[in-house]
Design goal:
Layout (H helix, E strand, L loop, with lengths): L1 H19 L5 H18 L15 E3 L5 E3 L11 E6 L4 E6 L3 E6 L2 E6 L3 E5 L6 H13 L5 H13 L5 H4 L8 H20 L13 E5 L3 E6 L3 E6 L2 E6 L3 E5 L8 E7 L10 E7 L4 E12 L4 E3 L4 E7 L3 E3 L2 E5 L5 E2 L3 E5 L4 E7 L14 E10 L2
């Protein structure tokens, strides 16, 4: 009965609001959304609309008309609830039978309430089979048989950036062949890191387990090798060695790192380079740029900071300089390095400053800039 009374009242208020819409000024239009939201919350029983459903990631329209994904509200999880991503690619969610994690650290044991944990990532010491395998492959790099050395190097490279930290702890033991191959693998991983878009790359393994809490991060050894988990599929036993990582936060946006290359095709008058990263006002962007671009008309080489002595774009941006904008907002100078707060919602674009009259006159602009961009949601 109370619900229908509330519904009748809200319907009356809604009709009154709709009747008044033609009388609203342009300044009032920004408040109209809040009016409808408040009415909707009343219909929902006074609850914020984001709490009515876990799937609260509606799309909005950014300045250039393309949809952007708003961050979902953080889903409230139960005190012992966790989502485990396993090494075989499967994901299970449920409540742990334990309410605390015991972590042994170099400073002594720590007891961490599960309710305070944000994420868990096992280290190499929790993967004994893998750790033994890596050790065998490293030793095989110095084997007398060429085929075995080649196979070991190929397998180690197959682990990618995950073994970067592990290899830094390996000693060559005076074996010149082992040393040479270790250096070759490390160089290959460095080149791979330059090419990787690490928005989807897992962090390199470290030896200890990492437990991130609300206030600090712990590195040590989780004492539980097996977890009892009550899931919607029934009671499960999960081995720590089978866990890739665990989280108690989902429905939120993640930080993203992205690498891209720019050249003369990305002059501001031509085609700005889209990072394909969509941000919201207040998000933080960190941009670092390296490389050079040859400016044919002046027989000079520009860095990402540009060459102000030879001209500007829009009277303020040195030619050859790297610029950034969000949506269809104003261009801002990046140069070699810049950290800025997104002034609006939209997709992040990058370009290179150039004067209009030098764009289509047959001049050459060889070279490229390498950009590394990091996005932190707020």
């Amino acid at each position: 009965m109370k619900f229908f009374l509330r519904l009748w009242c809200c319907t009356f208020a809604l009709c009154g609001t709709l009747f008044c819409i033609p009388q609203l000024s342009a300044q009032d239009e920004g408040n109209l959304r809040d009016i409808f939201r408040g009415i909707g919350e009343q219909i929902a029983g006074g609850l914020p609309l984001d709490s009515v459903s876990e799937e609260s990631g509606d799309a909005a329209v950014q300045d250039d008309g393309a949809p952007i994904e708003l961050p979902r509200s953080v889903i409230k999880v139960k005190p012992n609830e966790i989502r485990l991503h396993l090494n075989d690619g499967s994901v299970v969610t449920g409540e742990l039978a334990i309410s605390e994690l015991l972590v042994t650290t170099e400073f002594g044991p720590l007891t961490v309430p599960v309710s305070r944990v944000k994420s868990v990532r096992p280290g190499l010491k929790s993967y004994p089979v893998l750790l033994e395998k890596l050790g065998q492959l490293v030793q095989q790099l110095g084997d007398e048989a060429y085929e075995k050395r080649e196979q070991a190097q190929k397998e180690l490279m197959g682990y990618g950036l995950s073994i970067k930290n592990y290899l830094s702890t390996v000693e060559d033991e005076g074996d010149s062949e082992l040393k040479r191959r270790l250096e070759t693998i490390q160089k290959g991983l460095e080149e791979l890191q330059d090419l990787e878009d690490d928005s989807d790359v897992d962090p390199p393994w470290i030896f200890g387990d990492t437990v991130v809490t609300d206030d600090f991060t712990i590195v040590g050894k989780i004492q539980s090798d097996e977890f009892a988990l009550a899931s919607k599929y029934g009671d499960l036993k999960i081995q720590l060695a089978d866990v890739k990582f665990g989280t108690r936060q989902w429905g939120t946006r993640d930080a993203i790192s992205r690498n891209l290359t720019m050249n003369a095709q990305n002059f501001v008058q031509r085609t700005p380079a889209s990072t394909k990263i969509r941000v919201q006002r207040g998000d933080e962007l960190s941009i670092k740029v390296d490389g050079t671009l040859y400016l044919g008309p002046w027989d000079e080489t520009a860095t990402p900071d540009g060459l102000a002595d030879y001209g500007t774009y829009m009277g303020k941006f040195p030619i050859g300089a790297v610029l950034v904008r969000v949506g269809k907002g104003d261009w801002q100078l990046v140069g070699r390095e810049q950290t800025l707060t997104a002034p609006r919602d939209g997709t992040v674009e990058l370009s290179i400053a150039m004067m209009d009259n030098f764009i289509n006159n047959g001049y050459e602009f060889p070279g490229e800039y390498k950009v590394r961009l990091k996005f932190e949601p707020r």
